[in-house]
Amino acid sequence: MKGWVAAFPRQWRDAMMIAEAIQVPRAYQKTAHLVVAGMGGSGMGGDLLQDLLRHDPRGPIIVNHTYDLPGWVGSSSVVGLVSYSGDTEETLAVYRAARSRKAKVFCITSGGRLAAMAARDRVPLALIPSGYPPRAALGYTFLSLVKVAQRLGWGPSLWRDAKETASRLERWAVSYERGRTARLMKSWARRWAGQPVLIMTTEDRRSVGLRWKNQWNENAKSLAYVVTLPEMDHNEVVGWGHSMRSHLRRWTLVCLRDRRDHSRIQMRFGITRAMWRKVGGQSYEVWSEGQSPMARAMSHIYFGDWLSVYLAEVGGVAATPVPPITWLKQQLSRP
Ligand code: F6R
Questions:
Q1: Per-residue pLDDT, 112
Q2: Fewer CB within 10 Å, N side or C side of the chain?
Q3: Contact 218 CB / ligand 1 (< 6 Å)
Q4: Cis peptide before 129 (omega within 30 of 0)
Q5: CA-CA distance, 152 to 145, in Å (whole number)?
């Protein structure tokens, strides 16, 4: 996994080149909304895109992480199916549902049944390089989605932001692998090893927290949960009662901070963290870097990816294989 994480800046540039070639039929362009369907590492690009397009006047983007589609999806919907392997049953079920509802469909995959079905049905298909664990191919899945969304009229500045992100990723890679930040991450990994992590982010940057959580789970084989401000201040904090103290003392809180957050959110981070200190274990802050929202989101994501790899090293676990996911898929594929 470490090799893929280290090579991520190169993947990002390669993904930009591949994505440039993606074309979308003219008939798709009038649609009012976009639904992105995908699971796990493949769904992540959709979650991130949804957050980045939250304020886009073009209309809503919905991310679908299950077998069926919302009732309103029909012939005026564009449905993007993302499955790295092309064999994930939830995504294949959504493909069939979208086709039967006459939605305008496109697929992003490295092969499998999804590629075969798209070829059979002459559905637009972005074929991305194979050989990666799906979660390590985020550059390919996310940037393909960005390009499709752009061709449909969403996010006019996203490609410029992707270019900024490309050059920043190259710089971050150096310091996250060998520099001062790498040393910091390794010392955090030693302190956090074996402890569950609570990731505190904001409602409009939920995808970043989700990526941290998923990388914690899959790379570090450890537990992590995401909570978002301001919503968590209306429920979660009550659960941090004194009866929970003995559990929470073993938890680590990580606050994902962004200088552009609403001033009231900035204030809530400070107050909520102080509440945690009274009952919980250690707490840390990670500030995003970069200019555009995409670069800032990717700075958090890339930081978390490295941290999860260092955590796996400290914990003595293999970061790449995910035996429980493989086992589950095998059980479910039994006739
Ligand atoms: C594995 C991973 C998983 C998969 C998920 C869906 O690296 O991240 O979360 O992404 O099981 O499979 P695909 O991506 O092949 O549709």
A1: 98
A2: C
A3: yes
A4: no
A5: 11
- Is there a contact between 139 and 110 (Cβ–Cβ < 8 Å)? no
Q: How far does the centroid of ligand 1 lie from the alpha carbon of residue 57, in Å?
A: 31
Enzyme catalytic residues = 218, 234, 329
Mutate to test the pocket of ligand 1, among 108, 325, 326, 331 (most ligand atoms within 8 A of CB): 325
List the beta bridge partners of residue 36: 63, 80
Ligand 1 binding pocket includes 91 (Cβ within 6 Å): yes
Q: What is the pTM of this model?
A: 0.97
pLDDT by residue (tens digit) across 94-137?
999 999 999 999 999 999 999 999 999 999 999 999 999 999 99
Banded model confidence at residue 179, pLDDT cuts 50, 70, 90: confident
88 CB within 6 A, ligand 1? yes
Residues 6+ apart with CB under 8 A from 195: 222, 250, 251, 252, 281
Q: How many other β-carbons are positioned within 10 Å of the β-carbon of residue 330?
A: 9
